[in-house]
Write a structure and sequence with these properties.
The complex is a heterodimer. Chain A is α/β, with parallel strands linked by helices. Chain A contains nine helices and ten strands. By secondary structure, chain B is an all-alpha fold. Chain B has 15 helices and one strand.
Chain lengths: ~250, ~375
């Protein structure tokens, strides 16, 4: 029995008096791809942001690659190094070139020399098909290109897990596929992935499990075929009919 | 190929208007335009002509004595006051034989300022090293006592080099302090941020003059003996504190303009707090806050003149002293023009440099 990549047990999150996440139990096996969906305000983004402590959970257990997430800064940093994250708004550092965006964290947080960091960065930039943009600034790139740089930047830390927080929601429609292609490629190579996304085609193609959240709870989960073709819960059915209707 | 100008629209170009046409279009398009242009043109000509008359055609150069200059005077300026007394303006009471040191020291500081315009120096390590080295050389040259240089105490410093010294010291001391203040002000712990806010608001609501007085005159009674230091240094510390409080709020403004996602992305990459601040937050905060920062430096440079009230002769006071003798007291305006020119050269280059920085830092943005 291999150790899970991510384990959450009875995890609760409050914003003041508001109960944002209720008793979340979730295990992600190494190499598993999870797609999380649900209506807005259901807590799906909050959940994956709890995994790397961008949000603090108040009770319950979160364990990433065997490290328990608590108030110990070393544990938090360890988990953040092992879990790369891609954001809805890219969040590239606008004052640095694409290459510097990719080498900064490996050099500072992994103590890798510049030459090696740049070599690795160029490999990943090639992987996301924009090595020729390495010396430009993020502001000079299109949204799709920026998001691909963001993926490369996260990969440069050679994480075990990739977290995607609505990676295509801020993109123009014609740029979505170039980002999804990169994500599909990553999935095929066996990366452990947790993706909050509404791209149902992507979910069908890639996901091992789809999780549906509403009101801070996991309402339903299952393999994509079963989830999409034969949803059990009423709310899941309503949600899916709304998404497919558009 | 039969491609000609007619078939290729991209190569069709309008005839460039020549200079005369452009002037006509810009200044004489309508009757009102023409009247305004002529009126303001005449006014400008008259002002320039009067100035030239005063400063050049009717002016006296080269007379080395005040009384000669006074008799020669026919409505123009007497520049002899500058050519005979400029050393006082630049070096104040600094001993005559040693004034080359004061001049060299100022040149070193000027060199440091010019060097820090070169992008190669723009790193968190190189820039502080450059400034601290330059400042150390300046200090050793000015103060002496080492390397066989005769010691000249701060009481005898003066003129432009004193102004440069105060400005550089306040900046070097005040800027790191401002960064610390800004970070404390943003602390998650309410006790720290509230206390810092109170300190900043208190110091900002006091006049600079009263702070300088307090540090120069009152502090010696309050501080333990070992902490008193020279009067000049106490004033610099007080001024740096004042500078830091203003600059801290400028930096904080720059930080607040940063999207939250920037720090989140840095966290998610596993960067430690000091790296997030040093590589992500501060560089962008300074870029956002560049115009008000340059403004703050300009104000700081000009307000160094306030040290006269506690008995130091900065460039302004030295200028007054230089034209204050019975010999030259008729030539006060010429001296003020000279001192004003010195200020103008410094402040104008500072703001041009600021404009250059803004253009350069903007390349990464759209």
């Amino acid at each position: 029995m291999t150790e899970p990549a991510i384990r959450m047990e009875g995890m609760n999150k409050f914003y003041g008096g508001f109960h944002a996440l209720k008793n979340i139990d979730l295990e992600v096996k190494p190499g598993e791809k999870i797609v999380v969906c649900g209506p807005s305000g259901s807590g799906k983004s909050t959940m994956i942001r709890c995994i790397n402590r961008l949000e603090e959970h108040q009770s319950g257990l979160i364990e990433v690659m065997g490290t328990v997430l608590d108030d110990d800064v070393d544990h938090i940093d360890e988990i953040r190094r092992e879990a790369g994250m891609v954001f809805q708004n890219f969040n590239l550092f606008p004052h640095m070139t694409v290459l510097d965006n990719c080498t900064l964290a490996p050099m500072l947080a992994r103590m890798i020399g510049r030459a090696e960091a740049e070599k690795t960065a160029m490999q990943y930039l090639e992987r996301v098909k924009i090595p020729d943009q390495a010396h430009k600034y993020p502001g000079q790139l299109s949204g799709g290109q920026q998001q691909r740089v963001a993926i490369a930047r996260a990969l440069c830390m050679t994480p075990d897990i990739m977290l995607f927080d609505e990676p295509t929601s801020a993109l123009d429609p014609e740029m979505i596929s170039e980002v999804l292609d990169v994500m599909v490629g990553l999935a095929e190579e066996g990366m452990t992935m947790v993706c909050v996304t509404h791209e149902m085609g992507f979910a069908r193609q890639v996901a091992d499990r789809v999780i549906f959240m509403a009101d801070g709870e996991i309402i339903e989960e299952g393999a994509p075929d079963q989830f999409f073709d034969n949803p059990q819960n009423e709310r899941t059915k309503t949600f899916l009919s709304q998404i497919v209707g558009h | 190929m039969t491609m000609t100008a007619e078939t290729a629209p991209a190569t069709v170009h309008m005839q460039e208007p020549d200079l005369l046409q452009r002037i006509k279009a810009k200044y004489f398009a309508t009757r009102i335009d023409a009247i305004v242009s002529v009126a303001f043109g005449a006014l400008a000509l008259w002002i320039i002509w009067s100035l030239l008359n005063w400063a050049v055609f009717d002016a006296t150069f080269g007379a080395n004595r005040g009384d000669v200059c006074r008799e020669d005077l026919h409505g123009g300026a007497c520049w002899s006051v500058v050519s005979t007394r400029w050393r006082i303006v630049l070096f104040g009471l600094y001993p005559f034989e040693e004034q080359w040191r004061s001049g060299l020291a100022s040149l070193v500081m000027l060199g440091v300022a010019v060097l820090s315009c070169i992008p190669w120096f723009w790193s968190t390590r190189r820039l502080p090293i450059l400034w601290l080295t330059g400042f150390a050389i300046f200090y050793v040259l000015m103060r002496g006592g080492w390397f066989g240089l005769v010691e000249v105490t701060e009481q005898n410093w003066g003129g432009l080099s004193l102004t440069v010294f105060i400005f550089a010291a306040v900046s070097i001391l005040g800027m790191p302090l401002a960064i610390v203040f800004a970070l404390l002000r943003r602390s998650d712990l309410p006790w720290i941020s509230k206390t810092m806010a109170l300190i900043i608001d208190t110091i900002r609501s006091l006049p600079l003059l009263s702070i300088m007085f307090t540090f120069a005159i009152v502090m010696p009674f309050v501080l333990p003996d070992w902490a008193i230091g020279g009067k000049l240094y106490r004033v610099i510390v007080g001024y740096a504190l004042f500078f830091a409080c203003y600059q801290a709020e400028i930096i904080r403004g720059g930080m607040q303009a940063l999207p939250v996602g920037q720090e989140e992305a840095a966290k998610a990459l596993g960067l430690k707090c000091r790296h997030r601040i040093g590589y992500i937050v501060l560089p962008q905060a300074f870029r956002n806050a560049l115009p008000p920062t340059i403004n703050q430096f300009v104000i700081t440079f000009k307000e160094t003149s306030l040290v006269t009230i506690i008995g130091f002769f900065d460039v302004m006071a030295s200028g007054r002293a230089a034209s204050g003798t019975a010999d030259w007291n008729f030539a006060v305006i010429e001296m003020y023009v000279f001192v004003g020119l010195i200020f103008f050269v410094f402040v104008f280059s500072l703001s041009r440099y600021g404009a250059y920085l803004e253009r350069r830092l903007d390349t990464g943005r759209r």
